[in-house]
Task: structure prediction
Amino acid sequence: MSYPLSSGHVPLRFAAPSMSVSLDRIADFLGTVPLFRELDRVALRSFADITREHKYGKGTVIVSEGDPGDALYVVRTGEVKVVLVAEDGREVILGVLGVGDHFGELSLIDGRPRSAHVIATSTSSLLVLRRADFRRQVEQQPQVGWALLMELSRRLRQADGTIGSLVLLDVPGRVARVLLENATPGQPATLIKPMTHQVMSQMIGASRETVSRAMSEFQEKGWIAVARRQVTIVDRVALEARARPAL
Amino acid sequence: MSYPLSSGHVPLRFAAPSMSVSLDRIADFLGTVPLFRELDRVALRSFADITREHKYGKGTVIVSEGDPGDALYVVRTGEVKVVLVAEDGREVILGVLGVGDHFGELSLIDGRPRSAHVIATSTSSLLVLRRADFRRQVEQQPQVGWALLMELSRRLRQADGTIGSLVLLDVPGRVARVLLENATPGQPATLIKPMTHQVMSQMIGASRETVSRAMSEFQEKGWIAVARRQVTIVDRVALEARARPAL
DNA sequence: TTGTCGCCGTGACTCGGGTCACAGTGACCC
DNA sequence: GGGTCACTGTGACCCGAGTCACGGCGACAA
Result:
């Protein structure tokens, strides 16, 4: 995840050096975000110009379902979760977003209220782009519109897959599915992003206990291994079969 | 849902009259589709130019999950369903599309395989726009890109809502939800698009029998009325309460 | 009329998985 | 060290809802 520090020449600069240096670093960062990947340095700078940075402590509610929404957020550091919250406190996790991910584009596009809560799961720093500024920039940079379409497509595919798994799979099947989705293949083993059973259960609409039992079962069968809370996939094929409807 | 028949002047026309007349009618039709609503007649004609019309008999598979996809489809007449199909034959209905709805944009945007099956539920006529042609046109007409973003946003909101209801609501709650979603307010009563219990059950991930029982319960409580297979909402407030998590 | 067909309603049985209640296990901090 | 806290593992119990099995009913064709 390395990228060239803006060595060489820098675009015209008028303001105080310290400010511009930080804007350069923001522009560098934006260049690593898929949404802005296609842009050249000048365009990245103009997007950096319209950002404000905000910090949120762990557990802070960043946006609430039903709020009028007029900003796009990019995670610069930390982690946030997108959740639906029922009145009795139960939570459904629609997604966990890390560095380089973004949220808030729906309200930005259609102007309707926020469709979910977003809550910081660790101390996080977010770049905020307000609607009017963002739209003006996007009109100059149609590639960003295209990148947005790609991103929404990806999410829609994922959401449809989740719906399918909720209806067609039993809980162990859904557990297998999240494991596979959060696996990063590598040597010597393919690891899984660490997360608590509680979080997994809220991602797949199950109880913590049932997830726990499924994980035990997978260990006994030798499909996964757990060492010091780090899960690794041992038998990917078996997991994939378990995650397929109607074995 | 009426719109002016192209009275008055018509844009330049070279081809055989019969062909152009039909293209004019297609352009008229496209003008009623939200995706193309912002376009002027000339632009509508240029989109009409790149369409091919296809007919599909009831039950025909129009696209299959996993296929490489490179076309956008607009429903001109009839009705189709978007479904996930498990190996054992169980089906999840992700959506039912009628006249003016469209599908296939995901593969068009990201070039990945189709994410679901689309099957004609009645004899249907579809307009097909192939990827290369469509992209070329969209580059001329950025409003269409924006309309696509609006449409994907709408669907994503809906998909997230479905996920929430699958996890947070019991079956009667989900039944109440589909009823409300398919209600068209009007005088003297707010009607619900007719659909079989079978179809409803596949939309909400439940069995036909459980849906049947929920409908009976709602009738007994006086929340809905059924006459000759036409369902009408009597007590909308009660239904809305039932469709909210954690009553 | 009588068959056939697709859809609806209901009872009986079963079971996946939610809930409750605890016990165990690290990790971290006084 | 010991206390606190967040997480995990497991047994017991129970309920929502899936499945199976019918019977009824309206529509439509022969």
About this structure: The mean pLDDT of chain A is 89.
